[in-house]
């Protein structure tokens, strides 16, 4: 790491934003821009494979959340890198970037909650998760960058709490992939909080996000949208 010190700036206080180097800015943009087209194509595939209204709705919600994550992140990092004099625009995009994460988490659960049979108590998670996303969005609007640890905890809670509904699903196909994807997200958080300690830490976090999202997409495609999975699904009532 010592040999790579020129590629990163010093760590900043908790109440300040880390300023990436030129190399890190470029990496931050590239590591999410690369996945924009695949996310759009993947979402389109799910839409094409949809056989009923709820599959179509779920494909739209999930696809919009997945694509928005990479598009908004790329736009924010590009503006932050190339248009540093647009501080107000950059600040708004940074907030939007954080808000989109809540929407992405909710959208990632939507196909499972909408298309799988759930237990009586677990069915409420279909709307609870969107309330959680709304609360997270409001939190970012009022407390953006003030309490970074609290924000991280909010992401973790929203990421794992809805997963408990899997325990109520009679059909648990895809559980291994969901756990594997969650593992990559959790491991990536180490780098998410390592700016100024590890060169290209944020870009590495982006790669872990892409890997986690890719695994979860595979699980949705295989276990919810393939013809062999049709008999194991049910629409919300």
Summarize the structure in short:
It contains eight helices and no strands. The chain is mainly alpha-helical and 237 residues long. Keywords: Membrane, Metal-binding, Transmembrane, Transmembrane helix, Zinc.
Record keyword descriptors for this entry:
237 residues, mainly alpha, Rhopdopsin 7-helix transmembrane proteins, 0% strand
**Can you tell me the residue ranges where pLDDT is under 50 for at least 5 consecutive residues?**
none
* Oligomerization state: single chain
The major β-sheet equals: none
| Mean of residue pLDDT values | 87
Helices and strands: which structural class?
Answer: mainly alpha
Binding site for Zn(2+): 77, 202, 206
Protein name: Monocyte to macrophage differentiation associated 2
Subcellular location: Endomembrane system
Transmembrane segments: 59-79, 99-115, 127-143, 150-169, 175-192, 204-224
